[in-house]
Amino acid sequence: MRSHEIDYEIKGHDIQLVEVELDPEETVIAEAGAMLYMQEGIVFETKMGDGSDPEQGFFGKLLSAGSRLITGESLFLTHFTHKGFGKSKVAFSAPYPGTIVPIDLSTMPSLIVQKDGFLCAAKGTKIAMFFNKKLGAAFFGGEGFILQKLTGDGMAFIHAGGTLIEKQLNNETLRIDSGCVVAFEEGIDFSIERAGGLKSMIFGGEGIFLSTLKGTGKVWVQSMPIRKMIAALAPNGGNEKKGSSSLLNSFLEN
C-alpha cells in the first residue's frame, strides 16, 4: 500500500522530538513507548505488524512481530490515527539524548537501520529483518547480526546518539568506529576491517576493528552511540578523572 502523507516538524537541539501533523484517517506507526504527547482526536492502538499489508493474515502478522522480537525490539508497534476533524498532532521522542533525522524512503530502494535506530514512520512503511551476511561485521562491528530494513514511499524517522552526520558515497569507501553506523542505503557493502597494525590495534584507542562501507549511496553516522555514552558516564568510565583539575581535588573527592 502507498504510505500516508504526513507533515512533521523536528523540535529541539541536543535532545530532539518529532511532531507529526495528521489529517483525518492518517496514521503514523511508532515504537512502543516513543509517544511524548498527542492532541485531541488522535487514538492509538497496539498491533502486531506495521500495517503495510492490509491483506496480511494472523500468522503473517505473528511472523512479522516475531522478527521484530529477534532484532531486540518490542513485539508490537503502536498505530496513531487521527479520528477527529481538521488537523491534529502527535509527538515522539528518542529513548536517549541525540538527533532525529527524517528519511524520504521514496528516494531509495530500502534503508538498513541498526536495531534501535527506528523511531516512527508513516503507515505503509514495511519494517522487516535484514540479516548481515558477513559474520565479521555481525560479531565485531557493534551493529549486530540482525538489522532492520525499512521499505516504502513515505517518511520515516530514525534517531541516533549525539550528532547525526549524513555522508554521500560515490563508489567510495568510508571507515567508521564500530557501533557508530546508524543506517545506510541498501546496496552498500558493509564489512569489518582491522584498525591497523598490532600496535595501533592495542594502543591506538580506536578499537581493534573498524566498520567499512563501500559503494554508492547515503550513510548516516552517530557521534555518540548509547554504549559509548554509558561507558563515559559510568563510575569507572574513561571520563572519570577528566573533571579533576588538581591532585588536591582528587584527594578531597576521595
In short, what is this structure?
The chain has a single domain, classed as 4-Layer Sandwich (Double-stranded beta-helix), CATH 3.60.160.10.
Could you name the key traits of this structure?
254 residues; seven-stranded antiparallel sheet; Double-stranded beta-helix; single chain; six-stranded antiparallel sheet; disordered C terminus; alpha+beta; 44% strand
Tell me about this structure:
The protein is α+β, with helices and mostly antiparallel strands. The chain has a single domain, classed as Double-stranded beta-helix. Helices cover about 15% and strands about 45% of the residues. It contains five helices and 17 strands. The strands form three sheets. Strands 9, 11, 12, 14, 15, 16 and 17 form a seven-stranded antiparallel β-sheet that branches. The longest helix is centred in the N-terminal third of the chain and has 13 residues, at about 60-70. The protein is globular, with a radius of gyration of 20 Å. The model is unreliable at about 135-145 and about 240-254 (pLDDT under 50).
How many DSSP helices? 5
Q: Round the Cα radius of gyration to an integer and report it.
A: 20 Å
By secondary-structure content and strand pairing, the structural class works out as alpha+beta
Shape: globular
Proper CATH architecture: 4-Layer Sandwich
Helix content: 10-25%
Q: Tell me the major beta sheet.
A: 7 strands, antiparallel
Domains (count): 1
CATH topology: Double-stranded beta-helix
The rounded distance between the terminal residues' Cα atoms is 62 Å
**CATH homologous superfamily grouping:** Mitochondrial biogenesis AIM24
| Helix-strand sequence | EEEEEHEEEEEEHEEEEEHEHH
